């Protein structure tokens, strides 16, 4: 909520809210598989006494290989256990066992003679025991031995082992055998895979260091009082063992600790999820959009995706991207401080956006928002009990959980006065910290008086702490509260340098007093404290023109509409002019009397400015340091404006053609943002811009050139020219900007080449050139940019080759070539950039091969070759990239096979081969990639079989084989995939059977859609949740279905024997039946008590529907051409969607039932005119309503039921998918108010009606309900269909009914 709606006084609202709330009670590191067994206990609680325990055979490695490891460990601060002082005997003693059990990491260095030592073998047995019992991390190094020889005890290693076993008991040797077999399966380090032993040692030491760092239990929240209880209360709501996607609300007043609880949850659990994100402070960072809600949601979702997938500079074009990217990912999401439904719609509209087991946590002060979004699991954060409140206060006042001796009664008294709100306790504790007992005694009477005067309201508690500040710190507090909250520290320091002696010290004082916090370089002030500061300023004068800051809309309008009200006292104006409907000001001289104005922010927030702003202005104060004016309406700043003091200039989306006339002194200017000022033709002279750090002018499509004086901006760090379409070249003087770190030329389509002087910019870190369609080459001097980390050449379609000098850019970590369709090959020296983490060649359709040197990039984690249509093979050296996590080969249609060396890439987690239509087989070595979790072979049309070794990939969770039309069978070894969650075989038309006698115990989703030769399937899993059998020859479900307790979604063509297991479907929530032979649906369907969605689309012989379960919300009966009758109870069910498209035979009774049925969104059925039961009817899309003869008092809330006749324009192609939505605008004739209405609960639903249009689908009725508050009896309704394929032929409304809110407020 904007502050102007909360102020001028917070007292009444706060007292009421806090009183209500107090009385209210509501009844990674190394891959884990290589470290510890599947169900290892947590190692965090174990008391580790050593960091690393090495087990090795001294005579093999002590003097060379292991000594080098010790040296690298020492360099990285890693201390291994050394056993030099332990006397060796026949067996390991208790001291050594204690050392093993006390070590966080055990490293087993397996060499040729390792098994010759009984001592080493006993160590190994103890280590593997600790791995299972204590969760000890175990790392294996196979030094000049083959892991298979260790596992099978063959070769020289086996010979040595058998010699050691001579004369030993069978029990002892069997323990050794088992331990060796287990350690051999750990994905360790193989010396045979490394050409450089030093690099191998460096990698081992780095991994050990990372594991030690990641394994340290967080103590960040140990001092938080009451947090353990919060965590215990939250655990049942989280239910982390469940695969169900859960949205959980955390609700409570401001300052109660909601965000802190969410932060602790995130710290504790996020590492267990595939992806995670903490979206903090959403209410402030993403305020309510006033005009273009869709663009606001796009921006929100764009930022959300960018953070959760950790990818900069992504740009989405529609709201379906999040669901598509995350639907199969297990994610942990925190959406902090949400205050609008559009924010949830953009980032977490519904649970099916996320993969099984995902958890979405939402913190908010608005419980109605949670209810509206369908979140029924909410944790209510209550005020702490008295003892905890005292502990919280004591932590900040005394640095411990109890008061110091002699302060007990004083602390209790202050705690009571603080109202037990954690924020108040924190602020008051910080205030009293360090005071003597006498100072406490002196301060308490004033505190009591202040609280008594304001009835104990929390604002007075906060003001008490404010009053204790010195005058300069008070001023700084007000500056932040009114203007600089959530602002970058560096900018605040710069803007306030002239007004404060030491801004940094002042910020430090405010932070110490808990009046602000500084996080990630930004100043954060709690909204209650910000309200306090604004209230203090408001009380400076009854006349707003006599105050320091103008923030509230009505005050600003009052001052700007009268040029006599402003005064020298005003130093800052922060105005969101999107909140008004009239012009911003009528006086062109509004700012003349404000000669001291330093900070001017006018935020348009998506509004088109012309109708809101006067387009002439004669004066801007010369002392302005910050000028932020979105949609500035003039072509140039006033001629008398002097930017001498200007530090920051932000004028995005302006009408500017140039900033000012002539040359101006701008030596103080540091930040400039003219984004999307599409009329901008020239930039000012930068000769004096020696302080400029950031220049942002993206989307300035008429800008032809940069002035040569840009070279004078020697402190420039970031230059953003993204989307400057007409920019032909950069001046050679750009080479003088030696501090430039980021150069963004994305979408500069006209640029052909870059100046050679760019090589002088040696500090360049990111060079973004994506979409430079005419860029033919890079300058040879680019090799001088040795600090370059990211080079983005995406869609540089004219780029044929790279300069040889690129070999010197050895620090590159991201190399993006996707869409470079003219690029035929990569130079051999690309392998020099050994630190590259990501290499993106997606869409390089002319690329024929990769250089063998690619195997040198051992740090590579993501290799994307999707859409490389001419790529025939991968070099065998790809097997050297052992750290590779993701390999994308989708649409490599010329690729016939993978090299056998792919089996060496043992850390690979995701392999995408979908649409590799020429791929005939997979190498048997694929079975060595035991960490693989996802294998996508969709539409590999030539693939005939899978290798039996696929059964070795026991960590595989997703196997996609849809539309592999040549696939005849699956190997029986697939039964070994005990962790497989999803198996998709849709469209495998030659597949006749699945392997029998297997138990895929984790299998949750099985899709056999359109496997037309498949007549039955074996009992492969009883845990299936989603079963899709449509288009198969399967007519009977297996008898074991009665024990499938998790089945919720069943798609079948036919169901001969389903009635034999009536209780098998008790948990079903979604049922699809699609066979044209179905003539009737059994009455027992009513007993499926949890059924939420029923799809009978295309059941063309179905004549009638029986009584349906009350739980049903969605019914899709599209193209049920013979459907005539509905059960008479049909209208009782409260539906969300009803789709009867092309059900032309519905009798009148059925049509009446559908019209009578209440829906949250819509009902759609054939019809040629609006039925007579709609009292108000009209031709076209508009009708008038006069509520005659009513005794209603206005305003009043009414429920309307509308019907519109949709008429096909006749230009819809057969089978064309499209989207349908109808909305209504209500015009109040008497009061001149317009309101846009949509169906009730529209925001709860994930998708609009989506279905196939057919040429014969001419006229249908679209019926929906909506609630709205109206202020008079004379109304005009204008309906609109949001689809250019359709018109509205008629419209109608029933007489509205009174809308009575439910008791719970919904």
UniProtKB/TrEMBL annotation:
Domain of life per record: Eukaryota
Keywords, comma-separated and alphabetical: Hydrolase, Leucine-rich repeat, NAD, Plant defense, Repeat
UniProt GO MF annotations: ADP binding; NAD+ nucleosidase activity, cyclic ADP-ribose generating
Catalysed reactions listed for this entry: NAD(+) + H2O = ADP-D-ribose + nicotinamide + H(+)
InterPro entries: Apaf_helical, C-JID, Disease_R_plants, Leu-rich_rpt, Leu-rich_rpt_3, LRR_dom_sf, LRR_R13L4/SHOC2-like, NB-ARC
The enzyme's E.C. designation: 3.2.2.6
Pfam families, sorted: C-JID, LRR_1, LRR_14, LRR_3, NB-ARC, TIR, WHD_ROQ1
UniProt record, GO biological process: defense response; response to other organism; signal transduction
Domain TIR stretches: 48-212
PANTHER family, per database record: ADP-RIBOSYL CYCLASE_CYCLIC ADP-RIBOSE HYDROLASE-RELATED, LEUCINE-RICH REPEAT-CONTAINING PROTEIN
Listed name of the protein: ADP-ribosyl cyclase/cyclic ADP-ribose hydrolase
Species the sequence originates in: Arabis alpina
């Amino acid at each position: 909520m904007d502050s102007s709606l909360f102020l001028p006084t917070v007292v009444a609202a706060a007292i009421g809210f806090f009183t209500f709330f107090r009385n209210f009670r509501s009844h990674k590191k190394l891959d884990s598989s290589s470290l510890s067994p599947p169900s290892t206990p947590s190692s965090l609680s174990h008391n580790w006494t050593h960091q690393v325990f090495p087990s090795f055979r001294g005579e093999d490695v002590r003097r060379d290989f292991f000594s080098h490891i010790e040296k690298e460990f020492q360099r990285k601060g890693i201390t291994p256990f050394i056993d030099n002082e332990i006397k060796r005997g026949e067996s390991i003693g208790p001291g050594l066992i204690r050392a093993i059990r006390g070590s966080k990491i055990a490293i087993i260095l397996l060499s040729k003679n390792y098994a010759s030592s009984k001592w080493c073998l006993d160590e190994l047995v103890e280590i593997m025991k600790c791995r299972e019992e204590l969760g000890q991390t175990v790392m294996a190094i196979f030094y000049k031995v083959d892991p298979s020889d260790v596992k099978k005890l063959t070769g020289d290693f086996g010979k040595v082992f058998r010699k050691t076993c001579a004369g030993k008991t069978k029990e002892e040797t069997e323990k050794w055998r088992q331990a060796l077999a287990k350690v051999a399966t750990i994905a360790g380090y193989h010396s045979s895979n490394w050409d450089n032993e030093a690099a191998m040692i460096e990698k081992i030491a780095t991994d050990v260091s990372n594991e030690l760092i990641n394994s340290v239990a967080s103590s960040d929240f140990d001092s938080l009082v009451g947090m353990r209880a919060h965590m215990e209360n939250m655990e049942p709501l989280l239910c982390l063992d469940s695969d169900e996607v859960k949205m959980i609300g955390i609700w409570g007043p401001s300052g109660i600790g909601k965000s802190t609880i969410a932060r602790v949850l995130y710290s504790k659990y996020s590492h267990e999820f595939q992806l995670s994100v903490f979206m903090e402070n959403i209410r402030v960072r993403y305020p309510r959009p006033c005009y273009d809600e869709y663009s606001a949601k796009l921006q929100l979702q764009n930022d959300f995706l960018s953070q959760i997938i950790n990818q900069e500079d992504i740009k989405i074009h529609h709201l379906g991207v999040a669901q598509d990217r995350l639907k199969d990912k297990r994610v942990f999401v925190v959406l902090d401080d949400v205050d609008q439904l559009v924010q949830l719609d953009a980032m977490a509209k519904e649970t099916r956006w996320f993969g099984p087991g995902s958890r979405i946590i939402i913190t908010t002060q608005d419980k109605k928002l949670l209810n509206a979004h369908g979140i029924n699991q909410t944790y209510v954060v209550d005020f702490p009990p008295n003892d905890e409140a005292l502990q919280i206060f004591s932590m900040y006042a005394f640095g411990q959980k109890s008061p110091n001796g002699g302060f007990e009664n004083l602390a209790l008294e202050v705690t009571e006065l603080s109202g037990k709100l954690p924020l108040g306790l924190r602020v008051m504790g910080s205030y009293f910290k360090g005071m003597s007992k006498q100072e406490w005694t002196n301060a308490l009477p004033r505190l009591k008086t202040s609280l008594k005067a304001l009835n104990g309201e929390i604002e007075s508690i906060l003001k008490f702490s404010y009053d204790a500040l010195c005058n300069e710190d008070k001023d700084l507090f007000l500056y932040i509260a009114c203007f600089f909250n959530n602002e970058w520290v560096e900018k605040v320091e710069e803007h306030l340098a002239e007004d404060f002696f030491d801004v940094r010290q002042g910020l430090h004082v405010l932070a110490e007093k808990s009046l602000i916090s500084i996080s990630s370089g930004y100043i954060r002030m709690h909204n209650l404290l910000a309200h306090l500061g604004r209230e203090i300023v408001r009380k400076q004068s009854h006349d707003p023109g006599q105050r320091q800051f103008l923030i509230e809309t009505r005050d600003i309008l009052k001052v700007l509409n009268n040029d006599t009200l402003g005064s020298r006292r005003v130093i800052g104006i922060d105005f969101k002019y999107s909140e008004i409907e009239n012009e911003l000001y009528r006086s062109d001289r509004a700012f003349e009397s404000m000669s001291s104005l330093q900070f001017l922010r006018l935020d348009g927030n998506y509004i088109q400015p012309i109708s809101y702003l006067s387009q002439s202005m004669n004066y801007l104060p010369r002392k302005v340091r910050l000028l932020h004016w979105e949609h500035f309406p003039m072509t140039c700043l006033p001629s008398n404006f002097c930017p001498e003091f200007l530090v920051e200039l932000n004028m995005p989306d302006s009408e500017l053609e140039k900033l000012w006339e002539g040359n101006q002194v701008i030596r103080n200017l540091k930040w400039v943002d003219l984004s999307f000022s599409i009329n901008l033709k020239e930039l000012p002279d930068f000769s004096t811009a020696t302080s400029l750090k950031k220049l942002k002018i993206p989307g300035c499509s008429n800008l032809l050139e940069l002035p040569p004086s840009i070279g004078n901006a020697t402190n420039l760090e970031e230059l953003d020219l993204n989307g400057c379409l007409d920019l032909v070249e950069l001046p050679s003087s750009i080479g003088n900007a030696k501090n430039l770190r980021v150069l963004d030329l994305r979408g500069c389509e006209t640029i052909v080449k870059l100046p050679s002087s760019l090589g002088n910019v040696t500090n360049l870190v990111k060079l973004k050139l994506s979409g430079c369609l005419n860029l033919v080459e890079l300058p040879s001097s680019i090799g001088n940019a040795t600090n370059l980390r990211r080079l983005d050449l995406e869609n540089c379609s004219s780029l044929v080759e790279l300069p040889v000098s690129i070999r010197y850019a050895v620090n590159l970590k991201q190399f993006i070539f996707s869409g470079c369709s003219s690029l035929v090959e990569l130079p051999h020296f690309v392998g020099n950039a050994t630190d590259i983490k990501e290499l993106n060649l997606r869409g390089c359709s002319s690329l024929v091969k990769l250089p063998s040197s690619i195997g040198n990039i051992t740090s590579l984690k993501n290799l994307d070759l999707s859409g490389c249509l001419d790529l025939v093979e991968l070099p065998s050296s790809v097997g050297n990239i052992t750290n590779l996590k993701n390999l994308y080969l989708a649409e490599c249609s010329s690729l016939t096979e993978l090299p056998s060396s792919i089996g060496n890439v043992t850390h690979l987690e995701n392999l995408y081969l979908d649409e590799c239509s020429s791929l005939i087989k997979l190498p048997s070595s694929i079975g060595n990639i035991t960490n693989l979790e996802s294998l996508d072979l969709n539409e590999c049309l030539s693939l005939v079989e899978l290798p039996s070794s696929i059964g070795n990939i026991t960590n595989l969770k997703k196997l996609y084989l849809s539309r592999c039309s040549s696939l005849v069978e699956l190997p029986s070894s697939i039964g070994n995939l005990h962790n497989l969650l999803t198996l998709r075989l849709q469209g495998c038309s030659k597949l006749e059977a699945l392997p029998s006698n297997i138990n895929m115990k984790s299998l949750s989703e099985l899709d056999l859609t359109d496997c037309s030769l498949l007549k039955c399937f074996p009992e492969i899993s009883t845990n299936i949740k989603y079963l899709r059998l449509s288009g198969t020859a399967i007519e009977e479900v297996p008898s074991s279905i009665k024990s499938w307790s998790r089945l919720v979604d069943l798609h079948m063509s036919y169901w001969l024997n389903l009635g034999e297991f009536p209780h098998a479907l008790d948990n079903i929530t979604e049922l699809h039946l699609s066979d044209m032979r179905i003539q009737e649906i059994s009455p027992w369907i009513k007993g499926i008590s949890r059924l939420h969605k029923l799809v009978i689309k295309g059941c063309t012989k179905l004549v009638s529907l029986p009584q349906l379960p009350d739980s049903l919300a969605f019914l899709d009966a599209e193209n049920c051409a013979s459907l005539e009758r509905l059960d008479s109870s049909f209208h009782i069910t409260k539906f969300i969607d009803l789709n009867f498209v092309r059900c032309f035979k519905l009798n009148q009774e059925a049509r009446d039932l559908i019209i009578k049925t209440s829906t949250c969104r819509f009902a759609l059925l054939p019809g040629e005119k609006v039925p007579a039961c709609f009292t108000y009817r009209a031709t076209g899309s508009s009708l008038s309503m006069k509520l005659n003869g009513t005794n209603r008092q206005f305003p009043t809330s009414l429920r309307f039921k509308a019907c519109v006749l949709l008429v096909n324009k006749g230009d819809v192609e057969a089978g064309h998918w499209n989207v349908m939505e109808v909305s209504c605008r209500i015009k109040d004739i008497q009061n001149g108010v317009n309101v846009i209405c949509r169906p009730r609960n529209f925001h709860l639903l994930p998708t609009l009606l989506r279905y196939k249009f057919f040429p014969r689908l001419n006229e249908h009725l679209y019926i929906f309900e909506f609630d709205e508050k109206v202020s008079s009896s004379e109304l005009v309704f204008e309906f609109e269909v949001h689809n250019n394929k359709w018109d509205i032929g008629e419209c109608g409304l029933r007489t509205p009914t009174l809308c009575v809110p439910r008791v719970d407020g919904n």
